[in-house]
Amino acid sequence: MKPTSIVLDATVAVDALLRPDAPAGRLVRRFLERRDFEVLLTEGLLEEMLLASTDPRVLDQLGLSREEVERWIVALGVLATLVDAGGGGAVAADATLAAAAAAGECVIVTLDPALLSLPSTGDLEVVRPEVLMEILEARDGAGPSAGRTV
């Protein structure tokens, strides 16, 4: 796998907020700091991220205000490449798949079991954040999985 363009599922964004030292958090932080891969999002995915991360239960766990979380999601959207999935209104797994379809060849990074059960094709791979982190670290020469493909 050549992880240069990824669709970041809303589950990963929320997990990154909740657990910044977990693989999802490290992946998002790497993107924000280094931008050595492209994150592809749609308006639908940004909306899903906003809805999921500003749920009162999530805000309670984060200890952040709604405005702080909204600014984080907006910043992610500004740095990402927005792709037009057409139609809009899709949420959750549908929004992720719409983004991937609009993007063409890409990797979906998710924690959603339904998406993780999809078979990989020539244009699309679906992986967990820790798998992509292993590959990125191996590409850097910092990880034990040099040469690993998904």
Walkthrough of the structure:
It contains 8 helices and 5 strands. The chain is α/β, with parallel strands linked by helices and 150 residues long. The chain has a single domain, classed as Rossmann fold (3-Layer(aba) Sandwich), CATH 3.40.50. The radius of gyration is 15 Å and the shape is globular.
Q: What's the overall average pLDDT, rounded? A: 83
Second rung of CATH, namely the architecture: 3-Layer(aba) Sandwich
Widest beta sheet: strand line-up: 3-2-1-4-5
Q: Rough shape? A: globular
- Structurally, the number of domains stands at 1
Secondary structure tally: strands: 5
Sequence of secondary-structure elements: EHHEHHHEHEHEH
Distance between the termini: 6 Å
Extract low-pLDDT stretches: 145-150
Estimate the strand proportion.
5-15%
Number of helical segments with 4 or more residues: 8
What is the subunit organization of this protein? single chain
Brief sketch in words of this structure:
It contains eight helices and five strands, in the order βααβαααβαβαβα. By secondary structure, it is α/β, with parallel strands linked by helices. It has one domain: Rossmann fold (3-Layer(aba) Sandwich), CATH 3.40.50.
SSE topology sketch:
Blueprint: E1 5-8, H1 10-18, H2 23-34, E2 38-41, H3 43-53, H4 56-62, H5 66-79, E3 81-82, H6 92-103, E4 106-109, H7 113-116, E5 124-127, H8 129-140
Parallel strand pairs: 1-2, 1-4, 2-3, 4-5
Features:
Rossmann fold; single chain; alpha/beta
